[in-house]
Amino acid sequence: MMRQTCGLVLAALLGVPAALSAQGTSYVLIGDSDDAREVLLSVHNPTGQDQSFEVLPIAAGTNGVHRSTSPTRIDVPAGRTTVYSDLADGGPSMVELTAHGELTFQAYLMPLNSSGSRVGLRQQVPIVDSESLIRGGNWAYVTGLRRDSNDRSDYAILNLSHSTNTCEHRVRSREGYWARESSVLRHPPLSLTYVADVLAVVGVELGDRYTISTNCGDSFYVAALVSDDRNDRLTVLEPSQSGVSSLAPPGYGEPPPTPDPETPDPPPPAGCPSGWTCLNPDRTSHTVRRQDLQYIFRAGLEAGSYRSVELEFNLRTTSIDPAGAQIFWLGINRHRDLLGFTVQRRSDLFVRHGLGVTHTNKARLVLPRALTPNQTYRLSYSYNAGGEVSLCVTDSQERRFCSRGTANVDSLTFTASDRLVLVMGSDGTEEIEPPQWGWTYSDIRLRARKN
């Protein structure tokens, strides 16, 4: 099945560091094996002892859990680097690698001419492990697909779940129109789905810089392969970076801003402060799932004039969709009377607020502190009629960041029919505010104070 090439010499010619240090199982995308391309696997043993790994090719469209053949075990001598070709026989495939001990792997795609000689430039091929796979419920975006008389783009979906995976796929042009607004496919367990010339499949005869978006119910990975026949070039397109990172430039966020001594802190979270009406949400925790996207709470207040409305809650993030994240919406009956609407856009949190005015005339606050994945925050939002509007975020290191503005009304008037409405999460109707799968809201506290 696998052919060993001139190991140390070829490894030296490749001359790049290993891409994946492995102990466990990972998957290599081979793509469409034909006379115009070849995938090489470089394996390095950095230890002073012999190590081994197992290889099993999984043909596209087959169930990788039900196996008709056993993996092939390969020994790698101490300190050696060996390069293998012929990883799979004919047709699109992915290859399962299971390392026993400490090894490093790197895979390359090499263009071939009609005589089988290598031409053009090599291209690194994704090796997907537990860190690089995409968790179910998250969108992955692959950008740069094109199609013309010389170029074609293939698209690969790796279902890394051990059960059937349902995935939604969308294809969009650089101008923003849909070539395919939505296709829902069921992918076999542990399988590769390989779509050759994918733009032609969705009806695009000529186009450049198309984006395919994929969202699956369970773990997956996607990539595209663009063939440039005129220049003998093959390009592998991996999922776009999200733009969300926990790294920060020097001095960013340090030291934390000094609290304004003239602005009192919100009332303590325990109990209901004197003079306030505390509204008890019918649930204290909400996790964003497909069957439960939003938590919506409506409450009536005693008729009268109110001075303040305050909201506090904990938020545990998972991944963060780079398109944007709607965090909460708080208003009286409808959007025209908006107490607060908070979204994340790239590195900032934005708050819109304003009563009795259209959306474009509502004031905006900006808090230059992006939420990051897999963190827990405490958010406090306060609307004080005739005074200050503020959003404060406290991170896990107890650092507190705030942004403040001014309310556009002097009092909040509630009638017996009015409802204070709280919405947590997004229903996904706006593309720039997709659901944030797995986010959990907890310890939700909402209160109001009369004049």
Could you characterize the architecture of this molecule?
The longest helix has 8 residues, at 7-14. With 451 residues, this protein is an all-beta fold. The protein is elongated, with a radius of gyration of 27 Å. Residues 5-19 and 253-269 have low confidence and may be disordered. The strands form 5 sheets. Strands 1, 2, 3, 4, 5, 6, 7, 8 and 9 form a 9-stranded antiparallel beta sheet that branches. Strands 18, 19, 21, 26, 27, 28, 29 and 31 form an 8-stranded antiparallel beta sheet that branches. Strands 20-30-22-23-24-25 form a 6-stranded antiparallel beta sheet, with no helix packed on it. The protein contains 2 helices and 31 strands. β23 (337-345) and β24 (348-355) form a beta hairpin. It has helices at residues 7-14, 198-201, and strands spanning 3-4, 20-31, 37-44, 51-59, 72-76, 81-85, 93-111, 123-125, 127-128, 139-147, 151-159, 165-172, 178-187, 191-195, 207-216, 220-228, 233-237, 276-279, 285-287, 295-299, 304-316, 325-332, 337-345, 348-355, 363-367, 376-384, 388-394, 400-406, 412-414, 420-424, 440-450.
